[in-house]
């Protein structure tokens, strides 16, 4: 019986198959590092069975579903694009179909900017949860990411009970320069 990350035996995957999953995770991690270190800025931390990270960049346009069509929308008042990555801590793969919310607060104690769901965003090279935000100004902010237990079914009688509780990741003193991509 193959061992999943963390040393628990798996009744659903061979050692070779689990290595393929880890290869997927390593490839995603390389793309995530490109996003958080070169394209934008951010960081990541482990919380339970998850690796939760964020990236911050200027607000940007995107296609959105609109009455059965896809419509391109440029940011209006939005001035920051906040992205969240949620990965499996064991193999590093991106975890889809999650309910992810982000609370943004002023780091100077002047209050909460807001709490919003971060929907899944298809991206040409890095899946993530994210949206454009309107922040009062450039400065230092605290981010609280909350991930609800997923509702998707899970294979593996021995390991399928993972991700059963909500988790939160806090990132303090995140500097955000507001603006829009042109």
> What does the largest sheet look like?
5 strands, antiparallel
Q: Could you give the count of β-strands?
A: 13
Beta-strand percent range: 35-45%
Distance between the termini: 53 Å
Q: How are the strands of the largest sheet arranged?
A: 3-4-7-11-10
- List the uncertain runs: none
State the helix count.
Answer: 1
Shape: globular
Mean pLDDT: 93
Oligomer: single chain
Portion in helices: 10-25%
Rg, alpha carbons: 18 Å
Could you please describe the fold and organization of this structure?
With 182 residues, the chain is mainly beta. The chain contains one helix and 13 strands, in the order E-E-H-E-E-E-E-E-E-E-E-E-E-E. The chain has one helix spanning 15-39; strands at residues 2-3, 9-10, 41-47, 50-57, 62-66, 69-73, 80-88, 100-106, 112-117, 120-121, 128-133, 139-147, 167-176. The strands form four sheets. A five-stranded antiparallel sheet has the order 3-4-7-11-10, with helices on one face. The chain has a four-stranded antiparallel sheet with strand order 9-8-12-13, with no helix packed on it. The radius of gyration is 18 Å and the shape is globular. The model has no long low-confidence stretch (mean pLDDT 93).
Kindly summarize this structure in a few lines:
The chain is mostly beta strands and about 180 residues long. It has one helix and 13 strands, in the order E-E-H-E-E-E-E-E-E-E-E-E-E-E.
